[in-house]
Every structure is written in C-alpha cells, then in structure tokens.
Specification:
Elements (H helix, E strand, L loop, with lengths): L1 H11 L15 E4 L7 H5 L10 E6 L6 H4 L8 E5 L7 H14 L6 E6 L1 H13 L11 E2 L9 E5 L13 E3 L4 E5 L7 E4 L9 H19 L6 H19 L4 H20 L5 H13 L3 H9 L7 H13 L14 H12 L2 H8 L9 H9 L2
Helix pairs in contact: 4-5, 6-7, 6-8, 6-10, 7-8, 9-10, 9-12, 12-14
Bound molecules: nicotinamide-adenine-dinucleotide (NAD) and zinc ion.
Length: 375
C-alpha cells in the first residue's frame, strides 16, 4: 500500500513515467589522483582486435601537453583534438562519424571523451551514431535510440556539468537544442582524476562549477523532488559550499568539486532542473552563450524563485571576484526576445518542476522578457 501511495504522489508531481523510471547508471568508475594512467589497462579488455581502434576525442586545449602524451594510444588508435569553443552540434557528430567510417573498415572498439561537458557530450553522441543510422538529429529527444552504442568512456577535465554521469548528450541541431536522452547514452566507464582539472582558468572554474550549484538549487527546490534526488542534491550542495565558500587546499577543492559534479548529476537524473536552465537554453539558442555562464547570467536575477540560492551565489561571486558580463541583451530586437522566450517556455518539464502544473500562471512571455532585459 505504501508503495502505491508513494507512486501516486510522484504521479501527482507530474513525473512522466510508466511506473517508476528505471534509468541506467555508469557501471564502472575509477576515482583518484593520477588514475588517468590506468586508462591503458582499463581499455585493453575492450579492444576487439588490432584493426578496431579506440578513438580518443580530446579537448584541443591539451594538444601538445603532457596529458596528450599520456594517452594510451596503440595500434591504429586515433587521437582527434577538438575545440570546445562552441557547444556540440549534430552536424559535427555526423561529420566525425562519417570520418571514422571512411577511414576504418571496422567499427571502433571504443570512444573515449577527454575534456569538459562539450567533449563528453561529443563522445557520447559519436558512440551512439556509429551504430544507429540516419544522423544525430534523428535521435534528439527521449528514448529514440534503438541500438546499443559503442563502448564509451568519459574523462572529465573540468567539474560541474554532471555530463559524466547523465543519460543525455545535449546537442545543437538544425532546429533545436535538445539532448539525446537514452539508456545507451550513459558512459560504460568513467575515469575521475581530479589532477586533470588543475589547469582550468578561474572564470571557467566558476561558471562550470556554478552549473553544479544551480543543478542542486533547482533540484532541491523543485516539485519533482524525492528522497533519491534529495540525498544526492544535498550532498552536492554541501560540497559546492565547501569548495566556493571555505578555504580548502587546491587538491581538496579539486577532489570535492569533482564529486559535487557527480552527485549534482545524479540528483537531476531522478528529478529535473528549473528556471535558470530553461532560460539559459534561450540565451544559448539565440546567442550561442555557453551553458555555464548562461546559467549564471540568468540565475543572478532569480531571487523571487530561489532566494537563498541566489544569496549564496552572490556571496560566491563576491568572494572569487567574478564580474559577469552585462548588456548582453541590450540591443536585441523584439523578434529576438520572442525567440528566446519561445525556446525557454518550450522547456515544459523544467517549468513544471520549478513551479508545478500551473506554472503558466506565473510565467508569461512578458515576465520572461523582463528578466532577459536585465541581462
Ligand atoms: P566545456 O567543455 O565547454 O569547456 C569550457 C572551457 O574550459 C573550454 O575552453 C575548454 O577548453 C576549457 N577546459 C576544459 N578543461 C580544461 C582544463 N583542464 N584546463 C584548461 N582548460 C580546460 O565546459 P563545460 O562547462 O564542462 O561543458 C559545457 C557543455 O556541457 C555544454 O555544451 C553543455 O550543453 C554541456 N552539458 C551537458 C550536460 C549533460 O548532462 N550531458 C549537462 C550540463 C551541460
Ligand atoms: Zn546544467
């Protein structure tokens, strides 16, 4: 009886599901300073034979660095350096898959993404499209992927997005920015080596870390919240507060932010994000503003929705002397504001999580435009 009651509560909280969601988790994870050097051993049993390479997709910030020399590439493996200056696109995924199909007679043994959310998402998407025909855009949405993806490994070099643990890969497609959400998206293996994040520039460390902080605030204040999400969200929030508001050693700070990202990702797996993410999608779609900074630009103006969260955020900004850019939306036309508002209002589950089923009573196009105008 208890279970049934619980289930009704969840349903009444608008969690769309046939029963409870049964989602995959990363089955293998290694954590620890220097564990990157175990990658060769981890990959060895996955190698089908010497003609089926491992493809390493690596953030080009590492080109020519010590880390790139430590990549355990053997036989005909490929290391492909990719810029993270722009968020991943479906066309980029398709071009990479085509390149691999043209150059190798065999499917790769595996795909390894080394970088931030951008490279992790690319690796997930390439692994899917290698075995599923028709291009990446075809699979943007929920549970559209039919066939198991290629073995894929995620190695974050910056902490915050939770992309290492999530079952989505967010891509900019021809007509929408939307994730490939599927059971085949989640990594088969994640390698968490906090040392890899040592060189992240301060501003980027803040923006991507705040993605995690905002995941926690949106999850913990959402109507979809349940004990599963709460347990991860609270832990991640504590870790963010430690990292951004107390005086940790650099090593401790890297370790803790890496685990905050993981727990923050787990927290939204069974609930949803909220207002900042919905509006940040609008900014990103129209202006190409990246996820982390976009969330910060919106979140600073969301006191009426997340009063305590915004207070904490402002404290962190002050402590780390972060100045967010201003005047981003100053010269936009009405049509451009309309585009952002339409994209943001289209994120229905995010609004439902944030404000409940009757969210449209609070969120109108005028309301959203007035928030965008402050950015
Ligand atoms: P990113 O991958 O876009 O990288 C940001 C910048 O940091 C880049 O310039 C990159 O070169 C640099 N960088 C990364 N590691 C570095 C290092 N160790 N040293 C120096 N520079 C380094 O950053 P991100 O914020 O992690 O990812 C954003 C992307 O993640 C967006 O595309 C967003 O859509 C996606 N995302 C995905 C999920 C998901 O669940 N799949 C969740 C949130 C965000
Ligand atoms: Zn996010």
């Amino acid at each position: 009886m208890e279970v049934k009651k619980d289930r009704q509560t969840l349903k009444s909280k608008n969690i769309k599901m046939k029963g409870y969601r049964n989602f995959p988790m990363v089955p293998r994870v290694v954590f620890g300073s220097g564990c990157f050097d175990q990658l060769g051993d981890i990959l060895m049993p996955q190698r089908k034979h010497s003609d089926a390479p491992i493809i390493f997709l690596v953030d080009d910030v590492f080109e020519g660095t010590e880390l790139s020399k430590r990549i355990p590439s053997i036989f005909n493996d490929q290391i492909i350096f990719i810029s993270a200056a722009e968020e991943p696109k479906t066309t980029q995924v398709d071009a990479l898959v085509q390149l691999l199909k043209e150059n190798f007679s065999e499917l790769p043994s595996g795909v390894v993404g080394i970088g931030g959310g951008t490279l992790l998402d690319l690796a997930k998407a390439v692994a899917i499209v290698l075995t599923n025909d028709g291009g990446a855009a075809k699979y943007q949405g929920w549970d559209l992927v039919q066939k198991k993806s290629i073995y894929h490994v995620g190695i974050p070099t910056i902490s915050g997005t939770g992309a290492e643990v999530s079952r989505t890969t967010v891509l900019l497609g021809p007509d929408k920015k939307l994730g490939i959400n599927s059971d085949f998206t989640t990594f088969d293996q994640v390698l968490l080596d906090p040392d890899l994040t040592a060189g992240v520039p301060k501003e980027q460390w803040f923006y991507t870390g705040m993605d995690c902080y905002i995941h926690c605030i949106e999850s913990l204040n959402g109507t979809y919240l349940n004990a599963f999400s709460q347990s991860y969200g609270e832990k991640a929030l504590d870790l963010c507060n430690e990292v951004y508001l107390s005086n940790l050693t650099p090593e401790d700070s890297r370790n803790k932010l890496m685990m905050a990202s993981w727990h923050g990702g787990m927290s939204i797996a069974y609930s949803q994000v909220g207002v900042a993410h919905a509006m940040s999608y609008g900014l990103s779609y129209l202006l190409g503003i990246k996820h982390g900074i976009g969330n910060c630009l919106v979140f600073q103006h969301l006191s009426e929705f997340y009063e305590d969260g915004v207070k904490g955020f402002n404290q962190m900004m002050k402590l780390h002397q972060i100045d967010l850019p201003t005047g981003i939306c100053a010269d936009l036309t009405d049509a451009q504001f309309d585009t952002m508002v339409t994209v943001a209002m289209g994120m229905v589950p995010l609004w439902e999580n944030a404000l409940g089923k009757n969210w449209r009573k609070t969120i109108t196009p005028e309301k959203l435009k007035s928030i965008y105008q402050k950015i």
